[in-house]
Amino acid sequence: MTTTHSAPETELSELDSARAAFRAELIDVGLLVPSSIPGLYGRSGEFEDIIDFIDSRVVAAGEAEHGYRAKRFRFAPVFPREAFERTDYIASFPNLTGAINTFEGDNKAHAALLAERSDGKDWDHFLHSAGTMLVSAACHPSYSMLTGTLPAEGALMDIYGFCFRHEPAVDPARMQAFRMHEFVRVGTPDEAIEHRERWVPRGLQVLADLGLEAQAVIANDPFFGRAGRMLAANQRNENLKTELVVKLYGDLDDGTAVVSCNCHRDHFGHTFDIATVGGEPAHSACVGFGMERIALAMLRTHGLDRSAWPAALRP
């Protein structure tokens, strides 16, 4: 029997204090712009320069790994609800999901909405589904375009875009809206597994080149509910998810995942009806670089003054 020990309350308090202090520093120097919603920020031009620099290294790693075979795709931060349903994300992560609602009523309904708004009442019930969802993983919008039979070489995609997850927190590394740069492989089981395994050391090298100390750890997604605990255990036992983590707060926590390398097996092959030339459901794997988290790791490691960073890390 395995017993999980919770960290002492003083340690949790110290960790939260460290996170809050880092957040305050980022805001004070103008790198992040706070909003009234926890975890939702604007970014300064300097912060975006860091993101662009990181992305140049990620792109170079992709070209070194795949040549120029990966097809580039950039999707909107919203996609059809029908495609979202097929990802099955709502079954595993309902608490992280974001749906788009809008007003579709007539003048009478609008007047009623305004009257309730003037009275300080909740007017959300006047809004209805727009048929779109916020993208939770950058690769999700890509699978619907692969429905059918893949070419003999399968599919290899370079995808970059904003993602949303409802995780309000004081930790600046846990943003509600953030960017992922992913390399996605869809094909045979062996091709998917090889993709994930090859990217673990390459991802570590990208982080090392950025001056970050990272380690690869077997991990699991934060599946929701009682059944989710079993899914998480299976994911760890079958080694389907590897995270590259950096310790932003020293020994106060186990580290922050900045890169995620995942095998989905034939999940998306089944739900999106994607088949290999052999007629079997396609397997998929992705590696995702968390752009904001890597930027924060660099700021935490090298300091908030970029002019004092190592020369190799200053464009």
UniProtKB/TrEMBL annotation:
Listed EC numbers: 6.2.1.n2
GO molecular function, one term: ligase activity
Top-level taxon in the UniProt lineage: Bacteria
Entry keywords, A to Z: Ligase
Enzyme class of the recorded protein, top EC level: ligase
NCBIfam families: PRK07080.1
Protein name according to UniProt: Amino acid--[acyl-carrier-protein] ligase
Organism: Rhodococcoides yunnanense
